[in-house]
Amino acid sequence: MGRMGTLEGKTVFITGGSRGIGRAIALRAARDGANVVIAAKTATAHPKLSGTIYTVAEEVRQAGGQALACCVDIRFEDQIQEAVQNVVNTFGGIDILVNNASAISLTGTLDTSMKKYDLMNDINARGTFLCSKICLPYLMKSDNPHILNISPPLNMRPLFFQGHCAYTMAKYGMSLCVLGMAAEFEDQGIAVNALWPRTAIWTAATKENGLSASDCRKSDIMSDAAHVILTRPSRKFTGNFCVDDEVLYSEGVKNFDKYRISSDGTLTMDFFLNEHLDEFTERIAREQSANKSKL
């Protein structure tokens, strides 16, 4: 596929960047010397959740990048427009948009309030569309523009809807943006891709949903995979629904143990994927065996 190698000097706008996967992607970009925009609602410390836009911005600077903290609720168009203009005034443009902000409620239809339904759709589907729409005029001026949505592959199996229909609808809204925008902006050279984890990632959200750290991988696996995608030529890699370990395997990573928080426990598979970890591992073994037989 080929890679451009580094995000040095690139301006990366990350929604929901104050913790979890968004924070991890921010710090990975910072190590390259990128300009990182932390766009999130958390401006003051939360009593139960660590991280604010300002603490992550300081971490970005410590890691070697430039940082801009933007307090923004992506449900509101004027706030996004103000944040984007602030970014352009500060860094001169936008090269990459990571639509990471998301709301989750793994509840059935009868247990999902319309307030929660609206929240998930306003942040996940509408927020992703809106952030993309406002950033696109600036992305068109970049030499390697990318939009990366943290959303799952599209699959119409009822299994992926039946326990949490509203949440799936909202997350698939993000994925539909990939499907449509990748085709719409292909001629302009703007890559639009999705990235999703094969296993649960240890974040505040997974902890809230009852998982233990030993059942999860570190958020670093998502940030490393995102880095691979975002350093690929935008005109050659677009419209893809990527899985974290598969992206890294394509770059030569063979052992994923370093991404485990603990060797104890059993990794929890993500419920949006057809192929589970054991099937992926068996496929890798077959491919490696076939390659050896050709030597």
Automatic annotation (TrEMBL):
CDD domains given in the database record: HSDL2_SDR_c
Annotated localization: Mitochondrion; Peroxisome
GO CC aspect terms: mitochondrion; peroxisome
InterPro entries: HSDL2, NAD(P)-bd_dom_sf, SDR_fam
GO MF annotations, alphabetized: oxidoreductase activity
Alphabetic keyword roster: Mitochondrion, NADP, Oxidoreductase, Peroxisome
Listed PANTHER family: HYDROXYSTEROID DEHYDROGENASE-LIKE PROTEIN 2
Family: Belongs to the short-chain dehydrogenases/reductases (SDR) family.
The protein's name in its UniProt record: Hydroxysteroid dehydrogenase-like protein 2
